[in-house]
Design brief:
single chain, alpha/beta, Rossmann fold, nine-stranded mixed β-sheet, 12 helices, about 40% helix, Epox_hydrolase-like
Length: about 300
């Protein structure tokens, strides 16, 4: 059973999300960052001088729907009163695309750095990344310490090893990672949401609704997204290949996370250096910015702005 486009709950919700972001002072924009790559992002209008003196925040989404589905509550909280917010779609998500054959998260970091340069962001900016977006945030901070002020890494197992990926497959009862992260059936999406969210009510959604989500949010650029999953450089073997960061870092994690178990958060804090803080949000799974948005926002705001 499928839902026609004009009755699609996903399309209706997408319209609501767009109105929320517009009300927060952001506009939908597209920018060619080089001859191969075009990035779609939500950002402030270049005609709005009131945000020039605000600190800059770059929000990097996880593997799944486009950025506006994952960061709506943060954009509403932080823009435009506290930050000059930029919320891009990573390459092959939303309307961002490239003709390059590079599929690594390092390439995503390079694209985000080029975007900020093209936007004329000359002062240091804060990077907030969740899950896959945390991989990208880590590489940006590592490669451009002179550009990145502070780093927030949420629910992001950048310290994963090959055994962690194998454990995830066991928990999800799937034979390959794309079955977990790129569901193509209602059953697969229900499994993913059971791992990613602690909201039990999601299990009650009918197949028609899950299938509507899949057709609208998971089908576009599916081949390229599978290549992105296979192109991740982190966690390919049992050896950790990450280094401490020079910036102040905040790690935020849900204690019920079943994608990246919370024990990884404690290990990551020790790896990233003395300037790293860890905040655990109770009774929350892999998407604390959605499940527990108010507490997540309070934690991030305190870290980025301190006593201001």
């Amino acid at each position: 059973m499928s839902l026609s486009s004009y009755l699609s709950p996903t399309r209706l919700l997408e319209g609501y999300l767009r109105r929320c972001l517009t009300a927060a002072g952001l506009t939908s924009q597209t920018l060619s960052i080089d001859s191969e790559t075009t990035i779609h992002f939500w950002g402030p209008s270049s005609l709005d001088p009131s945000i020039d003196d605000k600190p800059v925040m770059l929000l990097l989404h996880g593997f799944g729907p486009s950025a506006m589905w994952q960061w709506r509550r943060q954009i509403q909280a932080f823009s435009p009163s506290a930050f000059r917010v930029y919320c891009p779609d990573l390459v092959f998500f939303g309307d961002s695309t490239t003709s390059s054959t590079n599929r690594s998260e390092v390439f995503q970091a390079e694209c985000m750095a080029k975007l900020m340069e093209k936007l004329g962001i000359e002062k240091k900016f804060n990077v907030v990344g969740t899950s896959y977006g945390g991989f990208v945030a880590y590489h940006m901070a590592k490669m451009w310490p002179e550009k990145v002020e502070k780093v927030v890494i949420a629910s992001s197992g950048i310290n994963m090893r090959k055994c962690d990926s194998e454990s995830l497959l066991q928990r999800s009862n799937c034979e390959c990672i794309e079955k977990v992260m790129l569901p193509s059936t209602a059953s697969e999406l229900r499994t993913l949401m059971g791992l990613a969210s602690s909201w039990r009510m999601l299990r009650m959604f009918p197949d028609a609704l899950w299938n509507d989500f899949i057709s609208n949010l998971y089908q576009k650029n599916r081949k390229e997204k599978i290549e992105l999953l296979k192109g991740v450089t982190l966690g390919r073997d049992e050896r950790l290949n990450i280094d401490p960061l020079s910036q102040e870092v905040l790690i935020v994690w849900g204690d019920k996370d079943q994608i990246f178990p919370v024990k990884m958060a404690y290990e990551l804090k020790e790896i990233l250096g003395d300037k790293t803080e860890l905040e655990i949000i109770e009774d929350t799974s892999h998407i604390p910015q959605i499940e527990c948005a108010q507490e997540f926002n309070k934690i991030v705001l305190r870290f980025l702005k301190g006593s201001q």
